[in-house]
Amino acid sequence: MKATILSIESSCDDTSAAVIRDGKVLSNVVANQEVHKMYGGVVPEVASRAHQIHIVPVVDVALQQAGVDKTQLDAIAFTRGPGLIGSLMVGVTFAKALGLALDIPLIEVNHMDGHVMALFAEAPTPPFPFLCLTVSGGHTFIHKVHAPLEMELLGQTLDDAAGEAFDKTGKLLGLDYPAGPLIDSWARKGTPRFSFPRPEIKGYDFSFSGLKTAILYFLQRQLKHDPDFVQKNLADICASVQHTIVDILMDKLKKAAKDTGIRHVAIAGGVSANSGLRQALQQTGQQLGWTTYIPKFEYCTDNAAMIGIVGYYKFLKGEFTHQEVTPVARFHQM
Predict the structure, then answer these.
(1) Pair 135, 213 in one domain
(2) pTM of the predicted model, to two decimals?
């Protein structure tokens, strides 16, 4: 069944629209919000107001780049959650209004399912079943993916996400927001010579709150003796923190692969853009005989193409939603 789908992503501070035709990405436009850097984190009210400004021009550009007129659309997919409720409201409301005006169906999408399906934006794509470690600022999951719309949750963070650990560490080090890419950049110049504790959590679950506390106490101790400690050792601190977080993630992923016997292994989500994690996955794959998959950078961070890919598979199954749909800050996994 052929379908041309407009997709909208507005879960946090990026406004994005994409056009997907028969599962292929025709366009993928993202408008970022630089204003949050001055606050050291995303301000929900500021984010939702910026979405209101960006949504119309972003959708227009996505349609123009795809060479598609709105009258050619067969459905509109949108992120229902999880995310910031004010930001989600902008995308959901726009999708509902445009869907009503064009008299075409709506498709609600779980943001985290979108990250997993970003692996299908471009070839090579993983065969089913495969394991996917999804790591972002707000979430950390391991899924066994049986089919495009069938994902079995094996493990998740019990408190903070890996991306949050990066960002909070960056704040302690005086780095701008978002700190994850900056820590990655500094880590490439340093050596992981400082040790931090690893949480002992059974199964495939994660915990990063203890690591954040350990980093805080470590810096407090060092700064008492040397006020310039961070400035002198920034590269090595970043390398050590990144090495620890990546090790924690990879240990659980290796355990899941060993227990399930699955050798097709992927990473997704914003933190999958981290060079240390990408390198660790590739090296581990070579050592253990995995076939590994990583999305292109543009499909790692929040984007509408990943939402549209999920929307396409839902369209094929006739999984449409109703005009009364409302956004949800937390969205149950499939």
Answers:
(1) yes
(2) 0.93
